[in-house]
Amino acid sequence: MRFIRHQHLVQLTHLPYVFPVNCYLVEEQDSLTLVDAGWPINAKDIVKAARRIGKPITRILLTHTHVDHVGAVDHLKWLLPEVQLYLSEREAKLLAGDKSLVEGEANVPIRGGLAKPGPMKAKPDILLKEGDIIGSLVSIAAPGHTPGQMAFMDTRNRSLIVGDAFQTRGGLAIAGQMRLLFPFPALSTWDKRTSIETARKLLELKPSLIAPGHGNLALEPQHLMEAAIKRADKELSPFNGQS
């Protein structure tokens, strides 16, 4: 996996030039927090990266439960049995195989490759709500790509790990905006209108950096976020519907 460090954040990327799937190690004083877990084959490379940094992984945070974000969890829990797994309360329903919508959510089918009960044995140790503090990170509800997706902001420098709320592969885009060079996040997005609301919310946080699930880090991303929101508004005019 490609290893790129920026301050307290290390981006690990599987197949960076073909089909980039990112996970992140966030460095604390004496430990590491892993955000997302890539594919099942990535577990040993994640552990090697932690050894390279010289600190143990003590937590795994999941932005959402699509298979390219949770794949290595079981293997990591086997290699590192003391690690605690964190996931949003809403996303835990999807992890358990319940794809039903809850009151107030857009009446749109949930899409994408969700981890099915059985293949992923690990269960969350801690269910997250917005505003929870995990080390130096604060959890932020970021629905749209999935109903329970979360983003995580580092309170030390305002770097923002966004899951698939944004992608940078093929150009910065909101979840649901099609990018021909990398269409997969758009194809697996639940509700585009909710994605735009989340994008506006994340823009208001004034992040110093966006760390996406797919693509390179984006430094000082405000103008790119604003442009993506404007494009999405045009694409989702009243004449376009939600698809």
Q: Could you please describe the fold and organization of this structure?
A:
The protein is an alpha/beta fold and 243 residues long. Helix content is 25%, strand content 26%. It is built from seven helices and 15 strands. It has helices spanning 43-53, 67-70, 73-79, 89-95, 184-187, 192-204, 222-235; strands spanning 2-6, 9-14, 21-27, 32-35, 57-61, 84-88, 126-128, 133-134, 137-141, 150-154, 159-163, 166-167, 173-174, 209-212, 218-219. The strands form three sheets. Strands 1-2-3-4-5-6-7 form a seven-stranded mixed β-sheet. The chain has a six-stranded mixed β-sheet with strand order 8-9-10-11-14-15, with no helix packed on it. Strand 6, helix 4 and strand 7 form a beta-alpha-beta unit. The chain starts with a strand and ends in an 8-residue tail after the last helix.
